[in-house]
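pinned: reference chain
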Amino acid sequence: MNQETAAPGARFVTPIRNFSLLLSPTPRGARLARLLATEQLRAWELPLDPAVHIVAELAANAATHGRVPGRDFRLTLHVVADILRIEVSDTYGDRLPHVQRHAPDAESGRGLVLVDALADRWGVTPGPRPRKTVWAEIALPHRATGIHAPVRGAPF
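pinned: its structure tokens
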């Protein structure tokens, strides 16, 4: 799903961009999430970094830690005003992610450390059961969004 609409309550027309799709909770699905997010951001003429890195980490986590056989995960990209919000929802809501510090020689476990470092904000929203959504927000440069006036209220 890909759509653009005008933000409600905006003094000037500000596009709201939305892209969402279901993917298989496999390494291939995680890789496809990164590739499709890259192409969507290019189509919207938005910067790829750090968004693509965040998508890659959240999708890999959904495929690795949020996997329930027979259930997909959802990637959603929202752009409202000058905020890009990345959401990855999976069906393993009983297992909420958190940043863990690992030994320097550990071979994995740094995904959320990277998300924490790259995103302006991130968090986890539980539900509806059995789902959870891990999200991250990135402030976009005004010239990338085409915004010339402020929008009332917070975008999310």
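why pinned: Residues 148-156 have pLDDT under 50 and may be disordered. The longest strand covers residues 15-23.
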